[in-house]
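This part of the workshop introduces the protein records we will be handling. To make this concrete, we reproduce a full record directly below.
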Amino acid sequence: MRWFVRGDIDGFFGLALDNLVQLLLIDALCRFVLGFPDALLYGRVLPAVAVSLLVGNLYYARQARRIAAQTGRDDVCALPYGINTVSLFGHVFLVMLPAKLLATAAGHPDPVQVAWHAGLAATIGSGLIEFAGSFVAETLRRWTPRAALLATLAGIALGFISLGFLFRTFAHPIVGLATFGIVMLTYFGRMRFRGNLPGGLVAVVVGIALSWATGLAPVGPAPSGGGFFPPVPVIGELARALGEGHVLTYFSVIVPMGLFNLVGSLQNIESAEAAGDRFPTAPSLAVNGLGSLAAGLFGSCFPTTIYIGHPGWKAMGARAGYSVLNGVFVTVVCLTGTLAHIAWAVPVDAGMAIILWIGLVITAQAFQTTPREHAPAVVVGLLPGVGAWGALMAKNGLRAAGLGVPGGAPFTPALIDAFAASDTWIHGAFALEQGFIFTSMILAAATVAVIERRFYTAAIWCAAASALSATGIMHGYRFADGDTIVDLSPAWPWATGYAVMAALFALAPMLARPHDAAGH
């Protein structure tokens, strides 16, 4: 398999844009929410992000070529890799911002440094969980039905990717619909532009031109400056961060986020196998964990993950080269301070159609590569991810209305009754949001077992859900000033409910008898 093929250009544009979105989020949240100075953001955090992403991208590209050589194929697509959006927001709003506010209230002379240290500790903790979990994840994969693994991804893709970018597409329809039409023509219609121009390249170029023509670009005033910011290990700062007790303070966030990254990466490996590329689980996950550890060692507050989207990049014709190109692109952007210039000239709208398409492909794959009779389990597995996205939208709406922001009223349990008055059961949404990746996988797996009349297996899955709920990893939440966050204390109502389901399934052979469709 060659290092670079034409499809790698399409894949590069999609993956690089996805990574660029994460970089732009890091830039905005660190500067405007956490108050990071430029010296910290551009001199420490972003160079460390470059190290973590370059290491992983190069490894997964080499891994794809090695598997291609072993199998005699030339169509192996490297695992996509980057920074997890959910973890990014989790580390900012559940770890670093609370740490900064506590330090400010305590009169600490440098609360921004405290926030950075808390983020470093959380990233190292997440990396250790990801690395250690890589040695037992294959067992979990063997025992979990494909429908359970893929449905979870489909729920995330449908909610956090497809619907989010669909809203943006219709908010800016001239750019959004035109570029989506190009993507549909190229990837759904399997048409090729004259001159063999890659569809992804055409979509981005047209998107940039339309963005400038309609006023979406340039974004803000033209930036100035630049330079070279080499990555430097921050061993001393990391030692202080670990010694300040942040791991224990934010343990209830670090553990779920680490498990989320581990399980999410495992599901993406399963997604890749469903698309035709089988990668060894343990080394793939171990390198992902090492990427997070490298991030923390050099000063980044954000763990890495094997990305959602492999089937999409593979369908585009991407192989190994797109991963290499992405790693080089991110490295250049992070080490030279050019991120601000890119954000000024190229709005996200220019390439959002590619990301929207990826979300659609992932959702479709959950149905296409699982047994037809398991389709109801896929639908069950979709719901928690979509529900978690809905809870996020509800909280964003509250913040837009002035709640949970500086100077506004905090989030309180009174919101539950206020929402219930309009027949919106927000309590269930907030509970579903916590640990939704586990909820999705367990309910889908239990549904598969019920469909196949393996009732004791279904009972075991529900018992596992009960146990996780009893720890608070699933469904345990509490109100913060501007959010609902995980609370690692027993969520007894849900633990009890799952226990009842487990008992029902275990007793099913004695309580009911099978019948076929004709017996209604």
The CA atoms of residues 272 and 310 lie 6 Å apart. The chain has two domains: 7-224+234-366, 375-512. The chain has a mean pLDDT of 89. The first strand starts at residue 81 and ends at 83.
